Amino acid sequence: MPIVLTVLGILIVSFLVGTLFNFTSLFLAIPLIIIFFGGLLGSESFARQRRIMQMKRFRRDARARKVEFDDDDKKTIAV
């Protein structure tokens, strides 16, 4: 819902600014909306990539590692 309100706000402001310039508010509003959606999609994709890289880092850190037990460890485990 906030995205819809933001888009409507940008649309109304761009209509007003366009009307002040040349009565061609539609031609000014369309590029502004396209720029807004491009920025929104870009920020979403960057956030998604950041989450993916964070999950890869967590998986890499949580991977099981082979551990060599010495004799004392083997005695403790066997008991």
Strand tally is: 0
* Percent of residues in β-strands: under 5%
- Taking pLDDT < 50 over at least 5 consecutive residues as the criterion, the unreliable ranges are none
- Shape, principal axes of CA atoms: rod-shaped
Whole-number total of structural domains: 1
Main sheet summary: none
Give the distance, in angstroms, between the N- and C-terminal Cα atoms: 61 Å
Question: Considering DSSP H and I runs of 4 or more, what fraction of the residues is helical?
Answer: over 70%
Helix/strand class: mainly alpha
The number of helical segments is 3
Radius of gyration: 28 Å
**Overall pLDDT level:** 80
What string gives the helices and strands in order?
HHH
Describe the 3D structure.
The structure is a single chain. This protein is an all-alpha fold. The protein has one domain. It is built from three helices and no strands. The chain has helices at residues 2-21, 25-62, 71-78. Helix 1 (2-21) runs antiparallel to helix 2 (25-62). The longest helix has 38 residues, at 25-62. The chain starts with a helix and ends with a helix. The model has no long low-confidence stretch (mean pLDDT 80).
Brief description of this entry?
The protein has 79 residues and is mainly α.
Can you tag this structure with a few keywords?
79 residues, mainly alpha, 3 helices, 84% helix, 0% strand, rod-shaped
What is the element layout, followed by pairings?
Blueprint: H1 2-21, H2 25-62, H3 71-78
